[in-house]
Design a protein that fits this description.
219 residues, alpha+beta, Aminopeptidase, 9 helices
């Protein structure tokens, strides 16, 4: 599977292609990315960024991803502390590793510290990445987001699986993601799981059809 991923290495955009100052009532944030691994190593992660693994281990995971050939990390930072991040890579889920093609990327994780969620920061970070006229890198890709209940933050949100699903749909749809039917067994494990995908404006019909076949396992 790793060999299949490596066959489709990507040309990353320059570091800090996204570079925006965001004033908020909680403080002045810096949204930037992809972040240079050296810069990323100088940041701290806010303690609430622990949905996937403990905060210190998540920081190390972000460093490894940013240093990999196909990994990109975008952050929102308050001074030298990351309060939100979004990661991209070649697909990591087994179904999509087997069906990897050059124009396919995965939004691997998105996380915002609970204390900063009240200002809609995840939405702002995604819109800064996908809806900025000066940054069109992802228009050349199909970006998938595999969303499953086992990684959702029910503890801090007090949402049911279906409520959390609606939250994610609303979040991603603002950046032109849509839901897709799929035979991916990880998605089909729970009725609330969902595959979201954003089709870049430069993707032709042939690649769209290929992606549709990949979703259904008829590729």
């Amino acid at each position: 599977m790793e060999k299949n991923r490596d066959r489709f290495s990507i040309e990353k955009p320059p570091y800090d292609s996204v570079n925006k100052i965001l004033p908020t009532y909680m403080g002045r944030l810096h949204i930037r990315g992809p972040v240079n691994p050296e810069r990323l190593s100088g940041y701290n992660l806010l303690g609430g960024l622990c949905c996937f693994r403990p905060c210190n281990k998540q920081h190390q995971a972000l460093l490894e991803l940013a240093s990999s050939p196909d990994g990109m990390v975008f952050v929102a930072a308050y001074a030298n502390t990351i309060v939100s991040y979004v990661c991209f890579q070649k697909p990591d889920y087994p179904w999509w590793q087997k069906r990897c093609f050059p124009q396919l990327l995965e939004l691997g994780s998105i996380e915002t510290d609970p204390s900063w969620r009240k200002i809609g920061l995840s939405k702002t970070v995604l819109e800064t990445i996908f809806n900025d006229d000066n940054f069109d890198y992802f228009e050349d890709f199909i970006v998938i987001a595999v969303q499953t209940v086992d990684i959702w933050d029910f503890k801090n949100t007090n949402l049911s699986p279906w409520e959390y699903r609606r939250l994610l749909l609303n979040l991603f749809q603002k950046c032109s993601f849509t839901s897709w039917e799929t035979e991916d067994p990880e998605i089909r494990e729970h009725p609330s799981n969902i595959l979201m995908a954003r089709i870049g404006s430069n993707i032709d019909e042939k690649i769209r059809k290929h992606f549709y076949n990949c979703c259904l396992g008829t590729d």
